[in-house]
Design goal:
The structure is a homodimer. Chain A has about 150 residues and is mostly helical. The first copy, chain A, is built from 6 helices and 2 strands. Chains A and B meet through helix 3, helix 4, helix 5 and helix 6 of A and helix 3, helix 4, helix 5 and helix 6 of B. Bound molecules: zinc ion (4 copies). The site of one zinc ion has 3 residues of chain A, from loops. Chain A binds a DNA duplex (30 and 30 nucleotides) through helix 2. Chains A, B: GO terms for molecular function: DNA binding; DNA-binding transcription factor activity.
Chain lengths: ~150, ~150
Amino acid sequence: MKVKELADAAGVNPDTVRFYTREGLLRPVRNPDNNYQHYDAEDLRRLRFARKSRRLGFSLPEIRQILERADDQHSPCPMVRDVFEHRLAEVEREITELQELRTRMISALSAWQDMPDGTPDGHTICRLIEHWDDPSAPPCCGEQTS
Amino acid sequence: MKVKELADAAGVNPDTVRFYTREGLLRPVRNPDNNYQHYDAEDLRRLRFARKSRRLGFSLPEIRQILERADDQHSPCPMVRDVFEHRLAEVEREITELQELRTRMISALSAWQDMPDGTPDGHTICRLIEHWDDPSAPPCCGEQTS
DNA sequence: CTAAAACCTATGACCAACTCACAGGTCAAA
DNA sequence: TTTGACCTGTGAGTTGGTCATAGGTTTTAG
Ligand SMILES: [Zn+2]
Ligand SMILES: [Zn+2]
Ligand SMILES: [Zn+2]
Ligand SMILES: [Zn+2]
């Protein structure tokens, strides 16, 4: 298979195939006549495996490690389980962060409901933002929450 | 104020001050004697404004636009409200995506509960991943969900 | 007075996972 | 034979900083 054939077979961009090849996830054989890369069914399996792993949240270095372990006839399963649990925790942390951002945004929006638009006077840039109380920021000059 | 003084006053990295300066968010005056940048209280206000805006989800180009509008004595408020609503929608889309990823991961974890670790045999890389049914992937070779 | 510490400058690389543009070589069908 | 589709490698762009490097300046301490 040539690059585009492999890419079409896996439903990815040909540039992704070239990128994964540079990253060492695929191992084509080069045709010395025309300098083309030649991929086989094994590469298609590796590519599909890599895409499936990406959808599960694995990074490219992690996928490369898994493939290398499998190439060495060692079971990647324990590593897969371990990495995966860490990734799940990280995803949940990202979700929490984004939900906190969403909470900040919604509280800002509701506070802005009744505020009129202002014209900058050299003292203020935008009251909407400057007068917004960031719940996650430390208190500053003389402002007390109690 | 010099770079580090401004950075300390705003609680950011001095490199962030230099970066924001290159990006046009801060406008220091250069001392021709030693080539140092000199920031004033206005720059501190702009820097604090930028940081607050970042915590609200604004991008640097958006913040620059807001500052430029304010410099022109035009009210940035309508733009702020508009950009903000789009950003909120985007954040909610990102949350949904991450929650879907989390769902995929948890369903994979529970499916892996009873699966034994396997050794690669040249036909399989890692059964955990390869035999995982991606709910968001289109059906492939002969696999039927019904 | 001098030497070291702490600061300043600009430039460029780095992160993640691709995607795209470019310039030049190869191969198929018309 | 001339298109057109494909291949090659390289380098830039994405986002918001952070860090490294090399060299110049200012402050502080001895
Ligand atoms: Zn496995
Ligand atoms: Zn205050
Ligand atoms: Zn405003
Ligand atoms: Zn199948």
